UniProtKB/TrEMBL annotation:
PANTHER family: GLUTAMATE CYSTEINE LIGASE REGULATORY SUBUNIT, GLUTAMATE--CYSTEINE LIGASE REGULATORY SUBUNIT
UniProt-recorded name of the protein: Glutamate--cysteine ligase regulatory subunit
Domain NADP-dependent oxidoreductase, chain residue ranges per copy: 31-169
Gene Ontology biological process terms in this record: glutathione biosynthetic process; response to oxidative stress
Keywords for this protein: Acetylation, Glutathione biosynthesis, Ligase
GO cellular component terms, semicolon-separated: glutamate-cysteine ligase complex
Taxonomic lineage from the root: Eukaryota, Metazoa, Chordata, Craniata, Vertebrata
Complexes and interactors: Heterodimer of a catalytic heavy chain and a regulatory light chain.
Family statement: Belongs to the aldo/keto reductase family. Glutamate--cysteine ligase light chain subfamily.
Species in which this protein is naturally found: Myiagra hebetior
One function term, GO molecular function aspect: glutamate-cysteine ligase catalytic subunit binding
């Protein structure tokens, strides 16, 4: 992720040069057009567009921004699936249903508005997954389990997922895909005269476009949003 962000920022910075006054900017749109392949509408039915959304330092309201940006970048009106990773809980605090609810409600709204087909979770144990399933209007279609935390799927989680038709997937993502300090370091290295310490990442979305019939990845990439907290 770090390498992708750095390469994009460096390429973007070299193209715009010093034309923009970095002091006054609150939003930087750093895009490299040729790096994102828009989906041909005629091929849309043959492709599955999925995303995993890592909320870094913002509220649940940013979920809509992330989905809208992903749809716009890829030239689609809807994502087939989105897996949500809420911000890490504070030390000494356990992940709870109450913590997840605002994020899930925002995803449910997007399903109802036909921006997403299916929504899923990441790293929920059987107890929390069951609580979410019973509470939610739009049920989770999948739950990712970190390979680092278990070599074998917990039997109680497997049984519950099978009973409720929830797909169990595996992943090996770190707890923080791109922390604030790492992002600011990349920003400092890539763009001249930018006050990197004022910029805070809000969310990171990783997308993949898969050819359904063949199960191969046609394209994949990252979209990240950050805001400037100037004093």
């Amino acid at each position: 992720v770090r390498d992708c962000v750095q390469k994009t920022l460096t390429e973007w910075s070299s193209k715009i040069g010093q034309d923009q006054n970095q002091e006054t900017l609150e939003v930087l749109e750093c895009t490299v057009a040729q790096a994102i392949e828009k989906i041909n509408p005629e091929e849309r039915d043959e492709l599955k567009v999925s995303a995993k959304l890592f909320i870094v330092g913002s509220s649940s309201s940013s979920i809509r921004d992330a989905v809208d940006l992903a749809c716009s970048a890829l030239g689609v009106s809807q994502l087939d699936s989105v897996i949500i990773v809420p911000p890490p809980v504070e030390d000494g605090t356990n992940l709870s249903l109450e913590y997840l609810q605002p994020y899930w409600k925002e995803l449910e709204n997007l399903v109802q508005n036909k921006k997403i087909v299916a929504i899923g979770t990441s790293d929920l144990d059987k107890t929390l997954l069951e609580q979410l399933y019973l509470w939610a209007q739009v049920k989770p279609s999948s739950n990712q389990v970190n390979l680092a935390s278990c070599c074998v799927m917990p039997p109680d989680l497997t049984a519950f997922a099978k009973e409720c038709d929830i797909q169990l997937l595996t992943h090996n993502d770190p707890k923080e895909l791109l922390c604030e300090a790492s992002f600011q370091e990349v920003l400092q290295e890539s763009i001249q005269n930018v006050k990197a310490n004022e910029w805070i990442p809000l969310w990171l979305l990783r997308y993949s476009v898969i050819v359904k019939s063949r199960g191969i990845i046609k394209s994949k990439g990252y979209i990240i949003q950050a805001k400037r907290n100037a004093s």
